[in-house]
Design brief:
By secondary structure, this protein is mainly β. It is built from three helices and 22 strands. The strands form five sheets. It has a ten-stranded mixed sheet with strand order 5-4-1-3-2-21-14-17-18-19, with helices on one face. Strands 9, 10, 11, 12, 13 and 22 form a six-stranded antiparallel sheet that branches.
């Protein structure tokens, strides 16, 4: 069963814990031009996860693509959690509804101090007799397409305060954020075997935060350009998902499916008015 956890990416939230144990991490634009992560755990556990923060409208469609599973978060306005409640099919674990599997670290200031572990969250779901189904396959895996152009450096801009770059070191992609290595609480730099870039549409949610910023509604369904960075090369294509109930389809511009290498994967949901550059 896939366990998805909402991880904060505000400056005060860094360094985070547990991102190096995730099978998938989605990075999505949120209010104020910042980003937030949806980290998905299935093959590995994490003894420390956090800071865990509030849900966002994009989560409903992303969770549905994973056949729901378990979704852990801390806080959410009514409109922010509504899509997850309406169509994610996930079993929801909310710190606000029941803090039992969560804890607040005294070493951090609220709200960036809510943590848990994959074991605690899974145990709580089991205690509540949750029986979510196994995740649907999101990607297909295969060898590099011969002749794929080399690309060892990638940079993306999701919003005014959310930029990231990836550098291939011959084995994996190392992540930097806003110009500095993205280091976790254990001192390790974030790495990925694959970095998938999906260009997405963003619409209005009507949800305004205390600073007057609207929470963007990132659409994780529809269609757009797709790029897969793996093994030091890039493969171009398109992604398509007509509705939230549809599976993702990733098609190479050369025909056939866009394939990944087995291993941890980060998915950058880059708005169409954001930017992607690679060399």
């Amino acid at each position: 069963v896939a366990l998805s956890v909402k991880i904060d990416n505000a400056p005060a939230a860094r360094p985070q814990s547990g991102l190096d144990r995730a099978d998938l991490v989605f990075e999505c634009l949120v209010e104020g031009g910042m980003s937030r992560f949806l980290a998905v755990y299935q093959s590995q556990g994490a003894a420390s996860l956090g800071p865990i923060r509030s849900a966002r409208p994009v989560d409903g469609a992303l969770l549905r693509a994973l056949h729901g599973g378990i979704f852990a978060y801390s806080g959410a306005a009514t409109g922010e959690i509504a899509p997850a409640q309406a169509y994610s099919t996930a079993f929801l674990l909310s710190n606000d509804a029941d803090p039992t599997p969560f804890e607040r670290l005294t070493s951090r200031f609220a709200p960036e101090n809510v943590y848990s572990s994959t074991a605690k969250l899974r145990a709580e779901a089991a205690r509540r007799s949750a029986h979510p189904g196994l995740p649907s396959p999101l990607f297909t895996y295969g060898p590099v397409v011969p002749g794929s152009p080399a690309s060892r450096h990638l940079s993306v801009v999701l919003g005014s305060s959310a930029s990231a770059s990836w550098a291939y070191d011959g084995a994996s992609y190392r992540r930097s954020e806003n110009g500095s290595p993205h280091l976790l609480a254990n001192g390790q730099q974030v790495r990925a075997t694959n970095v998938v870039v999906l260009r997405v549409q963003v619409t209005h949610s009507g949800i305004i935060d205390a600073a007057g910023n609207e929470d963007p509604f990132v659409l994780a369904y529809g269609s757009g350009a797709a790029q897969v960075f793996r093994n030091g090369v890039v493969e171009d294509g398109i992604w398509s998902r007509p509705t939230v109930a549809s599976p993702y389809q990733f098609t190479s511009t050369g025909g056939g499916s866009l394939t990944l290498a087995p291993g941890p994967t980060w998915i950058e949901l880059v708005p169409v008015n954001g930017s992607v550059a690679h060399t």
